[in-house]
Amino acid sequence: MLNKEQIKEIIPQREPFLMIDEVEEYIPGEMAVAYKNVDEAEWYFKGHFPGNPIMPGVLIAESLAQTGAISILSMEENKGKNALFGGIDKMKFKKMVVPGDKLKLEVKIIKRKGPIGIGEGIASVDGKLAAKGEFTFAVV
Questions:
Q1: What CATH number is attached to the domain comprising 99?
Q2: Which of 6, 22, 38, 136 could form a Cys-Cys staple with 101, CB 3.0–4.6 A?
Q3: Which one, of 42, 43, 47, 49, lies nearest residue 101 by Cα?
Q4: Which domain holds residue 111?
Q5: Of 133, 36, 41, the residue nearest 92 (C-alpha)
Q6: Which of 22, 29, 48, 91 is catalytic?
Q7: Is the model's pTM score more than 0.85?
Q8: Domain tally for the chain?
Q9: Which segments in the chain show pLDDT lower than 50?
């Protein structure tokens, strides 16, 4: 299990844009499982939406991407680098994520060629699918 400080040793994101709180497990270059504790004090809930707070889908996608980055950037040859979005494909949102939810983020790296790769991500809350999609990344 990695805590926030250990996560910061692998990926470059910082508050308020660090979107994962803990990593349950990871295999460098293969997969990662992380969690985001969705707190009502999150900065984005002030405007999305007042009186009906919902985590924006793009931030769920970012949370998945940061989870995948744990796997990719923990590889010895990628330490100190960054993983950037190259594309998002087949992204589907199935359930609203709201304050109090614990978002489980699972990413498998399904393809890699040089600095480019594809991760397949699933986000869930209490075992119910919240979002899924594929992410193309470039390590720079």
A1: 3.10.129.10
A2: 38
A3: 42
A4: 4-139
A5: 133
A6: 48
A7: yes
A8: 1
A9: none
